[in-house]
Structures are given as structure tokens and as C-alpha cells.
Queue: 2 jobs
Job 1
Amino acid sequence: MELRHLRYFVAVAEELHFGRAAERLRIAQPPLSRQIRDLEREIGTALFARVPRGVELTPAGTAFLPEARLTLAQAERAQRSAQRAAKGETGRLRVGFVEAATHSGILPDVLSFFRAHLPSIGLSLFELDPLQQAEAFQDGRIDLGILHSPPLDAERWLRVEPVYAEPVVLAIPKSHRLGGRARLSLGGLADESFVLFPRHVEPAMYDGIIARCRAEGFSPRVVQEANGWHTLASLVSAGVGLAFVPRSISSFQQAGVVYRAVRDLDVEMSLSAVWKRGERSPVRERFVTAMRAVAGKLSRSARGAK
Amino acid sequence: MELRHLRYFVAVAEELHFGRAAERLRIAQPPLSRQIRDLEREIGTALFARVPRGVELTPAGTAFLPEARLTLAQAERAQRSAQRAAKGETGRLRVGFVEAATHSGILPDVLSFFRAHLPSIGLSLFELDPLQQAEAFQDGRIDLGILHSPPLDAERWLRVEPVYAEPVVLAIPKSHRLGGRARLSLGGLADESFVLFPRHVEPAMYDGIIARCRAEGFSPRVVQEANGWHTLASLVSAGVGLAFVPRSISSFQQAGVVYRAVRDLDVEMSLSAVWKRGERSPVRERFVTAMRAVAGKLSRSARGAK
DNA sequence: CGAGTGTGATACCTTTCCGGTATGAGCTGC
DNA sequence: GCAGCTCATACCGGAAAGGTATCACACTCG
């Protein structure tokens, strides 16, 4: 049995007339008769009763008709379903992301965009550090990662696309003498203590900061390293030292910490989307596109506020 | 798109290997590759990603797989549905019947049989007199009739199959002098008044009664005609006269009426199944078969009780 | 690094079967 | 009883499915 048989059967059942049905199907009447005969033979029972002025449905045909229609409709649904998935309008996306994707605002905004415009896409979210993301990719547990920078050896099989960057500011304990100044220069920080993130988390930002300090004639004294921007902020709050952090952290208003822009520090924190090389996924492409759009809007509104 | 494409697609999606899928499908690998390619072209997107060690499903393929399975399952269900209808295991039957079908017990028993053994058959029941049944057949409102005897002109296009017969007894007002006798002879009824059903309702029974009376040397004095066995019984109860009725009526115990067998009155009331000539309906055939079985059981138990 | 193996794709041929044309058989209605 | 309508049958040509041989590519392993 093929869908052709069902299409022909439905046409005859609707016209109750082989000639008209054949016309509607754009074929001649004899081949139609033969296809129906073949279908009846395969099912093992007559579907039509041949009567003088055309045909009638037998009880078997009457039972078959709605089921045949359902089958044809289901076949069409299958086709449309594949096409929608190919266009990225449906499907499932598993996203691993670092903490900064949340507080930069990019992830929440993309999520609300997807919920509003593409509700039939299922999203699974996992907060994972870069190393965990690399593992998750290898195990096939996620389709997209959001991080600052992938583990060094992972660049070979991961495609990395920068999507967002935001300025770096200095986090200062409220009681610190520098907290009062509205604007600081980098050169004035030569004698301070710093808490810093591990270089591998965001090498570009790390190297940029070190290079700018060198240019000002000093090497920052790092008294502690720590993972996670919020952790860094709480160390600052505890008075351990100053910290360079992405500006969006400042919106969280950690008690005992103030944030200041630093003149001469044109360094940015970046966020990139990463995925397995050579893996095509329309949903992921849509997600990355949405991320870029959201990133653009965020950057513009930040500049406007400045 | 044809079901063949779906069958092939599902096989490849399950094996993730063209060679093994082809083997399972009992075809060679190249034609399978081509069918899949044709399917992908028709849908407009790749369903498989060709990778070194076989193939993987693309997002479109992943979305397509369950829908394709549903389509194939639905096609099978359609086929089975037609086959079940052809065997009379499913479908709908509209039955018109005269009152006697109910009180003879044959209709209630067939109904309970159907509900127990063939629950997926929908039954629609209409109490209709023979004339109404003939009209309902012509309008296509019923598929089966149960009556004593069809209208005269209807025998040409109706098939009539006797399925049941039961003895005729005499209904007598309780106060009547004959009510006391255990057994009556027909000859002793020559001077009585009778209420009788119209001849066309059941000509065989009518003629049989008249002929038996003639043989006993009298012609029954009919003081009133009436339709419906219960109506007849209530006229008897009112003292209008005696009435010949089917024995099963006696089980209703109409107040003021007693029923007596009459010696020499070997006449029966018959019930027949009727349907449009040349119309094949497996459900109707099953119903008639069930009616015959029930009728046999009823006759045996009645004889046993006698 | 090169031969070997396994995979799907391509080329080409054979066979099946779908669709077309011509015609027949059966019933209806004038 | 004959015209007219309807579906079935017979037969033919061509599209398309399936088979065989072979290629291209990539990974593997010595």
C-alpha cells in the first residue's frame, strides 16, 4: 500500500464516480480503476460497490475513508514538521553557559525572545564552566556553549564566535580611599592589591589588563585568584583587594563594593558562542543570530546610558 | 512522497547505516540511497548527515522520524479498520423493528449479545411499523428491519428471511366464562366476539386463524380491529372480545386478562429479518446470524418450559 | 605514510509497474 | 431494443524502482 492508493481512494470516495475522480486526479480512468482494484486486493475486501450510476462505499470503504484521510494528513504533517525543523522553527536546543551570560543580560533577553517568537523550540539550560562545557560537547549533552574563551585544546573541534563585549570596571571596597574618587587613572593603582580571575578563564581580558598596567609602568600585585565574577566581588567586599570585573556585575549592588571606570583601561570582557565544528543546526543558528541582535541592543543602550 | 519513502527512511534512521538498512529492507544499498535522496529533495532538506562511520539524523530528520512512524502506523490502522469492517467486527447498524421483536425477547437478547461480543459496533434502534420500515429503507435510514411481514409491494426490492416463530394463544377477559377452563378447543369459540389485528400486519397468521376456524365450521365474528399486540390485550381487558395473540405477550400479565392455549390451533406468529436486496453488509449478516441463534435458543427453552 | 577497509554515491542496466489509448460488458431509460 | 453512461479489461510505452559494478572519500593500522 502506498499513499498514492490512499489519495486515489479518497478521490473516488468523494466523487463516488471513477470518471470524475480520475479527472480530478489528472489521470485517465482505467489506471485509476486498476489502482483501486490493487488496493482492494491488498486489503482483502471490496471498498466500493459498483452500482449502475457510479459506485458506493461498502462498509469496509466507509470505515477506511476517515482513516485514509488521517493517514494523508499525518504524512503532510510529517513533511511540514521536517521543514519547520530545517528552518529552525521547532526543535530542541541544549545550552551550556557561564555565569556572565546571565548577569550581562544577554541570556535572559534571548530566552524571552525565544519564548515569545518561537514557543515550539524546547530549550534546556545548564550553567557550566568552560571545562564542563567542553566535556558536555564531547558527550553530546549540549548543542551550544556560551563562555568567554574555550579551553586551549578545544579550539580544534569547537567553532568560536564572539557575540558580545562589555567594558571592564574596577571593583573597590567601599571603605577604600579610592572609593571616593569619581574617576580613576590606571597609573594610580600601582601600589594596590588585586584579586584576579585565572588567566585561562578569559585570556584576552587578562592579557589586556596586564599589558595596560605594564604600559603604566607597574605589574599588578595579585594576592588571590578566584573563579566567578560574583566571588571576585565578594572578595573585594571583604577587603582582600581590588578587582577588574565586567561592568554588568555592578548592577547587582554587592554590599560594601563600589565600581569605578578606569581611564586608560580600554579592555573588554567578551562572550562567545561555541559549538562543534561541522554540525549544522538551524535552531542553534537562530539562537546565535538572536544573541547577536540582543548583544547589539545591549551595547547601544549601554552607550546611550553612558 | 510515498509510504515506501517513509518505510525506507525509518529503516535508515533506526540502523543509522545504509547498508544494514538495505539488508533489512531486502533491497540493495544504491536504490535505497536514491530513494532517500529523492525524499530529501521533495521535503527540501537533508534528513541525514553523512558521517565517516555511517549517517546521523539532522534536526529535520529527528523531527521527521516520529511523524513518519505515526504515518506508517496510521496507514496500518486504516487497513485493519477496513478489514475489521469487512468481517463485521466494527461499523454501524440501524435497525427498525416492530413491537413484537421486543416482547418476544429476540431483540433484547441480540442486543446484549452484541454489547458483550462486538462492543465496537454501533447500533441504532427505531421502533417502526412495517410501512414506516419500508419508507426508512427507501430513504436509506435503516439497514435492517424486523417485522412479521413486509408491505405487499415491497417484497420486490426487500429480501425477507424468517428467523423466529412462536405459538398463538387466546387472550380472554378474566371475568369471561372461558377463563376458568385450562384448555380450550377452537370449536367452542364459534359464538364468541373477537378483536383482531389487520390482515396486512401478519397475513400468514391471519389466514391461518381464519382457515382453522372455517375448518371447525364457523367464521369468527370480528367486532374490532386494532394495531399492536398490547393494544389488543387491553381491548380484551376492557371486555370488547377475545383475541389471538403471540404467546410471549402473556408474560406481561396485563390486568384482567388470562391467556389459554387452544387445541387444534397450530398457527404461529412469525418474525422476519428484512433488508434491501443486493446490499452486502457484514454487520447486518452477523446481526441476522445472532438473531437466528437467539431464536433457536428461545424456541428450545419455550418447548422445555411447556 | 601508504595500503586496506568500510561507507555512501554514481553510472548504467534490467525489470516492474504506472498511466495512456482503445475497446468491451453491463445496466438504465427512453 | 437501442443509445448512453459507467466501470472493467487488454495492451502498449515510458517512468521509475531495483540490481550490479565501481568510484570517492575517510578513517585505521601496520
Job 2
Amino acid sequence: MRSTGAAGAAAADDVRGDGAERPMRHDGDSIHDELRAQILSGAIPPGAALREVVLAERFGVSRTPVRAALGRLEHERLLERGARGLFVKRVDAREVVQVYDVRIMLEAEVASQAATTRDDHDLERLDGLVARDRALVEPSDRLRMTTNLEFHAALWDAAHNPVLLDLLERLSVHLIHTPSSTLSVGDRWVEALDEHALIVAAIRERDAVRAGAVARRHMQRAREIRLDLLRLEVDAELG
Amino acid sequence: MRSTGAAGAAAADDVRGDGAERPMRHDGDSIHDELRAQILSGAIPPGAALREVVLAERFGVSRTPVRAALGRLEHERLLERGARGLFVKRVDAREVVQVYDVRIMLEAEVASQAATTRDDHDLERLDGLVARDRALVEPSDRLRMTTNLEFHAALWDAAHNPVLLDLLERLSVHLIHTPSSTLSVGDRWVEALDEHALIVAAIRERDAVRAGAVARRHMQRAREIRLDLLRLEVDAELG
DNA sequence: GGGCTAGTTAGTGTATACACTAATGGTCCG
DNA sequence: CGGACCATTAGTGTATACACTAACTAGCCC
């Protein structure tokens, strides 16, 4: 794939001075990541068909790695099998609400657990993220989403619970195509940052109950706003 | 005429006497299901290596469908990538407890939601399962596990929440190789049946709060017993 | 003119050959 | 006797050819 004259390239390469133990797994993963990103960003819209041959051409590889990537995406529920092949999944409003309901629960649990399991490094990282986000001036829609995701990911890590982590990661997939972030509504961004700070404060003091409660409220608020957005959307469609 | 030629080739390929003992339908899915069942049952033990060529031979297919199946199993977290290829995942006691913690939460939520969303058919099914399990006399270890799983699956369905369902199904995978069922300890089986009945009763009356509470207690009890089992196991290992 | 049927085709599923990489074992040198 | 180097090899990753199936189209019979 990388080089058609593979034998020659392989013979010449005996230098690996960059002593890093990185996974080095660059098989079909890159295709998977790329497709995933494009689906999540909406570049490949819901309902679009994903043809193996087309993708193989686009990525300059054979169907084999494309197939692997598609299989994984299907299993992540990002794609669904239609009459003919795979299509980007469409999510409806009902499902989005259900996702939020579950996520409220899980985030509360994560925060609660993080309060007891976090180490100094976790705390430092969370503090750093809060400070960094506070320093942003008029961040773009995209930046808000990214930094927010980063913060929550740090929270997830602080819980040191691979099971919860796995479910949360899987859950986030269900939220594809939520058109815009709740963090761009009114002064929600500033509000959310304050709530983040509250969560971190509770975690710092190892107050599991409070951490859970604060996190729960944080996500409930997000759910409310998401509902408003969905209503607006529906109204727009009907009117 | 290409089709006749193809048919002939296919026929010539698989002629092994007249006894058609094997279904010719080797969908990639069947391999996935088969492997999954063998892993869950322990027939393929934790830590075992899964070699593509070996499996391809065993199933009488090429590496391609085997690869697809393995990819899916890896994504389900049943396998993990080791130094060389894929291995059946080992789960440690810590993770089992974490799974129970999360499951307590999810089962409570499911029961609570089922109380509001269930229809008559759901209720009928749950009633039927409870009655059926009550009628069993001295069920085997395996039967206890199966019927219990069936009951909970029916509960999950009654919630009519695909998101919760997805997570619970995914979660159950984390419980592979929990050596024995908690339902074979003392009189836990009878106890559990009573608790099932309580859950169904609350769902019948559409009492979401009580359903959640009862279900939570049910799973907490299971967690306790699992912990006891794990302690016994650890003690046995230490001597 | 409408439904039924056969040919066509687009697209996936599978087999196989080849490329490549990391572990392994043996040998040589210190 | 021990450690580094090289050949071997086991096993995965990728490309490509082929098989098969379900949807489409065009014609045919009624």
C-alpha cells in the first residue's frame, strides 16, 4: 500500500532511532478513523450509501481494508445495513433524548467514582483543562465542542473504570448528527465552565456525593437545552 | 453463461459424499456466533490465542470470513490484541466488580423505564417467565443462568429503549468467564425468583420508583454474592 | 395496458496469493 | 559463559480475482 516496490524499501530500512513504543498499528485503522470523523462531522450525511469500491478508490487502497473499517463502523452503530450495502445511520430525536438520559446517569457515576479514585495527576489535568477553557475568548462552535469533549474525557479517565469508560465512549456514538452543540446557546458556555469547575472542586475534596450531584445537574441542564434545540428544529420543519 | 459455470465449480468444490451433514451457508456471521458462544462458555479459555489459519481450517473456510468475525469479536472486547495476534481476554476480579456496579445502575433504570413504557405483551411475557422459572425443580447451574438471562432480557425489551439495551448487551460481554453463577449459592435461586416477581409486580402497577428500587436491590444482592464468590476464589488461590 | 419473467448489473461475500513484520532460535564473537 | 547478530518463521495485513445474490430493466404474454 505505501510502496509498490516493497522489497527494496524493506531492505533499506534498518533505522528506528525514534525509540518510541507506540502501537504502530496503522493497518485499516486510519481508514476507520477518517470515515468516522467524516460521518461525525456530517461530511458524509446520514442516509448516504458507503460503497466499498468507491471508498477503496478514494483512499487508494483495495477493498479489503475498507471492508474491515466498514465492519467496525457498522458494529459501532454508525452505519446500518440497508437493502444494498451500508448506509450512514439516521438518528431520530427520540433516541437523542434517550442517550441523554443514560448519559446523565453515567456521568454522575463517573464523577462520583472519580472523587474517590482520582490521583494527583488526574486532578492536575482537570484543573489545567478548566483553566485553559476559561481563558478562551469567543471560541468557535467547533472549539467549544472539542474542548468540552476533552474535559469529559479527562473526567472519564479520572474514574479509572474501564467499564464505565467503554460505555461512555460507545454512548457518544449515538449522538452523531446532533446538529449543533448545546454550548453555543446563550451563555450556556460560561455556565457550563462554571459547572465543570464545580465538578472538579468536588473531586478535589474527594466528595463523591457532591461530585455526582453536580455532574448530574450539569448533564441534566445539557439535556434540557438539547430538548429546546430539538423542539426548535421540529418547529422549523413543520412551519 | 456464467451462472451455470459458477454453479458447477461450486458443486465440484464441496462434494464429500451424499451426507450433507454441514450447512453450506457459511456466512461470516455464523463463525462470529460460534466463536462467541465458545468463548463465553469457556470452551476457548481466557488467554487462548486465536489464529486465523487454524480457525479457517476448523470452520472449513478461508481466512477472510474468519478475519471479519475476529474483528467483530475484538471490537466487542471479547478479544484483545497481544504481541502476536488476538487472544481471548482475561478479566480480573476488579473489573467484574466494576461491571456489577454499572449494571446495578442500568438495571434499575431499565426497570424504572419499563414500568412506564411496557405494554400488555411485555407484561404477559414477564409473567410467563416468572411462572415458568418458579415451576422448575432443582434446575441445573446452566439452566439457572439461561433462564435468568432470559428474564432480564425480557425486562430490557420492556423498557423499549434501544440505547439502554445496547449498553446492557455490551456490558454482559464484560462478564465473560465469571466462573459460576451467583444463582447456585445457597437459596439464592429462590430468593432471586421472588425478587423477579417483585420487579414484575411493580412494573404491572406502573410504579416506576418502586420498580427501580426493587431492581436495584436485586442487583446489589447479586453483587454481594459475587463478591463472596470472588473472595472464596482468591482465598483458594492463596491457599 | 399491466403484470410477469428472463437477462443484466451493481455490489457484496469469499478465496487465494503475496508482502511484510515481529518473535525466535541458533551461532559466532567477546 | 553470556550477549549480540543473523536466518528462519509464524502470523498478520493487503491486493486481486472470482462467486453469488438481489435489484433493475426490458421485453413478452395475457
